[in-house]
Amino acid sequence: MNRGAKIGIATVCTALVGAAGFGAYNVYDAVTGNESKTPKVRTVVAEAPSADLAAAGAKAFLEAWAKGDLEAAGALTDSPDTAIATLKAFQDKVKPSALTLTPGGAPTASASPSAGPSASAKASPAASASAPAGTEVPLSFKARVEFAGTTNVWNYDGRLGLVKMSDGKAAVHWTANVVHPKLDTGESIAVKPVFAEPPMVLDRNGKPLNYPSLTPALMAKFKQNASGAPEDAGTGVVITKDDGSGTPDKLFTITDPKPAPSLKLTLDGRLQAEAEKAVAAASKGGTLPASLVAIEPSTGNVLAFANAPAGGQNRAFLAAIAPGSTMKVITAAALLEAGVKPDDVLPCPATLSVAGQTFKNDFTEPHEDWKFSQDLAQSCNTAMIKKGLEVLKSGDMESLAKDAFGIGPTWKTGMLLAPAKAPAPSGDNQRAAQLIGQGSITMNALTMASISATVQSGVFRQPILVPGAEQLKAERTLSPTTLQGLRAMMNLTATSGTAAGAMSGITAGAGAKTGTAQVNGQADDNSWFTAYRGNLAVAAEVGGGGHGAAAAGPASALVLKVGNG
């Protein structure tokens, strides 16, 4: 420390002696370098200072702090070194252009935003150990903090606890929350960039979206996209944990951040509400994992998605599981393109052996006279496998999935997604399994809803959540003949096939396909359902839900009944 600094501090301390009559000896010796005297050691005594002594001690401390004489202010506490370090951190990190501190009287319950009878109530055991219980005189003060470049002024109520020292003087019992009632040990206060409150997320009709399955993480994804750019930041006084944990506590906004605009998504509040109910029921109140997605075929807009358990993983987008017989929609399309007609007889044997592996159906009796359309409607595994191995080359079905339905490339939906996979099979066993949605094929509700949407509209439109977002295109469309046959077969499934129960009363202009999938030796099969009705396509899956018509079907039908109008 240079001589000029010493003289300056000594001058301030002289003024403080007159104001409070306290602490001059130690401060004088410290700043003048007088080592000929032995500094007196002051300790807190088990006796409260008088009201006048406490008020004088508080006034002197606040005057020194307000003038920026932090060493003098620290000397007026029972922990000078810690006080000086904390006050210096406030000065360096908050950088007030002016600081006015006005003493008050005894604090009231509403005098500050902190809880408890006094600021010292928040102190750590180590910080408060020097102040015997019941010996503090609590006093309040008002802080006015100004900042350069703005007319915004930060006003807050503070608290001090005054204790009596062994030399008969009063001192501020030091805790971190002397600086601010909310500041505690292990925390820092500083000016940092602050952003506007997250924007409202709206549905396609401009109504706020607030549903259980739209988890905070999902909403945060879109809110982050709409705000948080450095150029949009303001500045504010913020308290943070030194270990990085917890959420920063913004105390005051110095310069206002740029407001974040509301963000409109493609979702429809009416359909979302119904999807939430449908998934909750299908999952037995969230005890089974489940998801549902609704898509607008004419645009690819995602109109609803729901998950069980609500607030958990976004299973609708992130699941990667076998879709079971719902995959037969694409298998049927491949067979139609290969020249098989809906009215062609395709026998449905009870079992079928492929390379030593036996495949069977959900029913035990054979149906030798069934037509292709009936095989799909009743979900005959053996007929689809047998004809597929006969007329399709290895990988034909998987190629069609990619070329016409967009399965394989990563979709840019605006959210994290597990891409659907339909890899080329490695042998006849895998060929057979993949023709009925098993093997190495993995899908999620989003993918299966898109498949039904493609059948309904005749064109693959990649699902999106933000209106006008870029959409990947498929390499080609299905032929008119294939589309006509596929729609008729899916309608038959909805009117008299395995989906008839779920689709009762909503079969006009509709098509559907059920699915039952076995997954990794799971005790109960997964329930799948995909369907369309008008300009609305839906898919649902319920882990361990059993047959597709049992759990996923009724859930999908509830949303389809609402319609897209």
UniProtKB/TrEMBL annotation:
GO terms for molecular function: penicillin binding; peptidoglycan L,D-transpeptidase activity. Residues 101-135 are annotated as: Disordered. It holds the Pfam family Transpeptidase. One of its GO terms (cellular component) is plasma membrane. Residues 54-186 form the NTF2-like N-terminal transpeptidase domain. Residues 102-135 have a biased composition (Low complexity). It comes from the Bacteria. GO terms for biological process: cell wall organization; response to antibiotic. Residues 291-533 form the Penicillin-binding protein transpeptidase domain. This is Penicillin-binding transpeptidase domain-containing protein.
